[in-house]
Every structure is written in C-alpha cells, then in structure tokens.
C-alpha cells in the first residue's frame, strides 16, 4: 500500500465526470510524473544536443553519429536483470524498485552536469563520452521507471495510466527542450543543461509518496553461478516459449524504423531551413506539444472503442503517413504554416501511438520479469532506426536531399503495419500477451 491511501483520494474525484476519474487516481498521476523524469535525459541527448552541435558548426555526419548514443536505450535489456534481481545495500531496505529509482536518478543528475560542462568546440570526444554516459544512465532510469509504472498500475488502470505516462513523457521532453533552448539563448548551454537536471525530482518524489509497487514480485532464486545464469536468461526464455513470440519480436524490431529515422533528423531539417531557436521552441516544442496532447486523448478514446489490436493498427498507419508531412515541409522550405502542419500531424499521430503501442508492449510483459522484458521490448522498438540514423542518415540526406529522405522513411514504416495486420488475422496478437495486463 502506498502512502497515498485510497481514502485520501477524496470526494473531489467523485465530483468529476466518470470518464475523467481514472486519470486522476493516485497510480495514473504517479505514472505522469514518472514520464516527466523519464523523458528529460532522452531530450538532452536527442534534439537538444543536435541543435547545440549544429549551432557550433559541427558537420552533419558528426551530428547524426551522435544518434549512436541512443544505443544504450536499445541494449538496456542486457543489464535490466540486475535491476530486477540485485538488492542494493543500505537503501535497499526501502524496496527493490524505490532504491534503484533513487540511485539512478542521482547518477542521471551527475551525468547531465557532465554533458553540460563539456565543450564541443574544445573536445568533441569529451562531449561524446558525456553523451554516452548520460545515455547509459538515462536508459537505466527508463528500466526502473517502466518496471515501477507497470507494477504500480492495476489492470483496469492500464489505459489511463499509459496515457498519463505519455502526457508526462511529452511534457518532460517538451519542457526540457524549450527550457534548454531559451536558457542557452539567454545564457549558455552549460547553464541550460545543469538547470535541466531538476527534472529528475518528479521520479524521486513518486518513490517517496507512492511507496513500493504492490504488484512487484521478488526474485526467489538462491545464490550461485548456475542459478544466476538461469535468472539472467529466464525473462527471455519465458517470452520466446510463447506462441508466435518470434513474429512479435520481429514486429517490435521493425515497426518504428521509419518513425525513428525521421524524428532523430528533424532538428537538422529545421536548422537547414533557417528556423530560429525561438521558432523551433514555439512550433516543434510548443505547438507540437498540444498536438501530442490531443493525440493522446484521441488514442485513449480509440483504445476504449476499438480495442487494443485495432487501435494499434490505426496508430501505426497514422505514424507512417506522418513522415510524408516532413517531405512536404522540405519541399516547401521555410514556412511557419508548413512547420505547424507537419509538426502538428506528426505529434498527433505519435500521441495516439504513445497510448496504444506502449499499452501493447506493457501487456506483453510477465510481472516476474517486468524490468527486463519491457526493457527488451522497448529497446527493440527503435534499435534499427537509431542504428541507421547514426550510420547512414547524414550521408543519405547529403546525397538524396531531405525530400527523398523523408519519402524513404515513409516507405520504411509500412512493413510494420502489414505485419501487425497479419498478427491480428492469425491471432498471434492475442496469444502472445503476458500477465501484466490481467493479473491484479
């Protein structure tokens, strides 16, 4: 039981419309604040760092190579079993999930400061080391936050909880990006990065007020090398024994290739089209944020009315088509209306997908291996796109131009749509689910 007791939820919630009440329960609200903290390291090594490097005159190939720092998020499943099974000394008495949440949050703060003081003009290699450090710390924070969220939410709260988590993630990313841009314009990038470390506090406070997740299942494996190896590989073995597991894993691997390729290069497009920091902050961060909120709301309605499978399918189609809007923007050139339309549609589609696809990945987990299995699934979801961005995106943009590049990302998004349609028709989308979405 968390320190936020059910009795304290108060009569004010009962006075709200029935459709709104699930979103303001303690666990979904906690998922919101977890999302805020989860997003900010990602934002600082993503679009924000891309803008910083581009403004310092770093070449496109070098800038896009920094997308490889995101590979920590793709390989986080390799050390996720440690988070699942290792009890920390001293602070471990507060619970497996909470103790890891607090420790990693502190490490993320230190990594943000490291990246903030690194100067691209003095030593680009130091910036790379700092970005990798923050990437590993941020990926580990994601591991514990995702496990905490899934185990904190009851099955009936998965829809609103996932939506609130996506609201938090987007607000965290948008606010971090906007604050960093504005502070960098008025002061410098070092001050901007160090100031953004404050976004680690929401997750820390969630651990304080919500307590240890009640659905968390502790490891029962005894010590010893053989048992340790069994424990390490158990999450993967449990998953691949399910019917259609390999098809599901392949879908997770390919479904975001086009979307990831497009999103990790957008700041290069905006910079080359001549958009200022203020325009990027207003349209990409501000206007896009509100479009994303609308998308999350629509995604929640789709989830309720269409069910998990068909809402996921529709969201995949919308996210694929959204890449085409950036090809149109590249063709039009510097246009505030064009940027608003492209950014608005992309964020609207991403908001819908943020509810439906994340809920689907969460429902695939087994509660005994929540941290490891969700780390594996979320890592696979973007590893191909991030690898291609870091190794070929800059060269592709320079050789074929932005218009053709974003047309290519649109084409690459559709194989995932077709595969998920097949999974629905064959029944694999149902039989491959875990117990995270059903067990109380």
Q: What would a concise description of this structure say?
A:
The protein has 440 residues and is mainly α.
Question: What descriptors fit this protein?
Answer:
globular; single chain; Growth Hormone, Chain: A; about 450 residues
Account of the protein in words:
With 440 residues, this protein is an all-alpha fold. It has a single domain (17-431), classed as Growth Hormone, Chain: A. The protein is built from 19 helices and no strands. Helix 16 runs parallel beside helix 18 (370-426). The longest helix is centred in the C-terminal third of the chain and has 57 residues, at 370-426. The chain starts with 9 loop residues before the first helix and ends in a 9-residue tail after the last helix. Residues 1-6 have low confidence and may be disordered.
Extract low-pLDDT stretches: 1-6
Q: Enter the CATH topology name.
A: Growth Hormone, Chain: A
CATH superfamily (homologous) name: MFS general substrate transporter like domains
Q: What is the number of helical segments per DSSP (H or I, 4+ residues)?
A: 19
Compute the number of structural domains: 1
What is the approximate shape?
globular
Task: Tell me the CATH architecture.
Answer: Up-down Bundle
Fraction in beta strands = under 5%
Give the helices and strands as they follow along the chain: HHHHHHHHHHHHHHHHHHH
Structural class: mainly alpha
Distance between the termini: 14 Å
